Amino acid sequence: MALPRTIAIDGPAGAGKSTIGALVAERLGYLFLDTGAMYRAIALAAQRWEIDPDDAERLTALAHEARVTIGPATKRDGRAYTVLLDGSDVTWEIRSADIDHSVSQVARVPGVRDAMVAQQRALAQRGRVVMVGRDIGTVVLPNADRKIFLTASAGERARRREEELATRGEHRPRQELLHEILRRDQLDSERVTSPLKAAPDAVVVQTDGLEVRDALERVLGAIARPD
Ligand code: CDP
Known about the structure:
Blueprint: E1 6-10, H1 17-28, E2 31-34, H2 35-48, H3 56-65, E3 68-72, E4 81-85, E5 88-89, H4 97-107, H5 110-124, E6 129-133, H6 136-140, E7 146-151, H7 154-167, H8 174-190, E8 203-206, H9 212-224
Parallel strand pairs: 1-6, 1-7, 2-6, 7-8
Antiparallel strand pairs: 3-4, 4-5
Helix pairs in contact: 1-9, 2-4, 2-5, 3-5, 4-8, 7-8
Cytidine-5'-diphosphate is lined by residues 13-14, 18, 35-36, 39-40, 103-104, 107, 133-135, 184, 188.
C-alpha cells in the first residue's frame, strides 16, 4: 500500500491531537501542521489590536493581513514548533487562558476561516503532511488519504490539560479547565461554518484511559490499515 500523502487528524479540545499528530509526523518523517495554532495567533493579533471578537469584518481583514508562520522549533524549551506572528515569536503567548477563551469566537468567523483554509491547503499541496484541527477531514482536505477523529471524555481532556499546564509550571483548577473545554466544544460544534465533527470516512479513536504511546499505536495502525 502506497504511503498516504495527507493525513487529517481532527477532534475536540485536549483530545491529544497535537501530541499524537507531532509524533505521527516524526515517525513518518512528514511535515506537521497544527492548524489550531493559526487560529490562536489570529486571536492574539485581535487582542493586540483590540478588535472585538464579534467584529467579523475587522477580524476578516486582520486574518488576511497578519503574517502567521509555523515552522521548526527554534528553541529547546519543550515546544514542538515555533509560531511567528508578523515575525515575532508567539509560541507560548498563544497558549494563555485569555486566548483559550477568545479563540473559538474568532475561529467561527467565516472570513477568518477562508483565509486560514487557503493557507492550509497551499501547505498540503506538497504532500507528506499531518494536519490537525477541527475541520481538516471535512473541509480543508476532504480528499485526505487518511482521516482520524481523536476523542476522549471531557473529564479526561480536562485532566490532561491540567497535567500539560503543570509541566510548564502553570496551575489552573481542573474545574475551570473543564468549564472552558465544554464551552469551546459547544462553540466549535455549533458554529455554522465548518463545525467540529468527524468526517463520515474518519476512523474514530477513543483515547480515554490510553497512554500516549498506546493512542499513538492505534493511530499508526489506522494509518497503516485504513480499512
Ligand atoms: O489545543 P486545543 O485542542 O485546546 O485547541 P487548538 O487545536 O489549539 O484550537 C484552538 C481553537 O481553534 C479551537 O477551539 C477552535 O475554535 C479553533 N480551530 C478551528 O476552528 N479549526 C481548526 N482547524 C483548528 C482550530
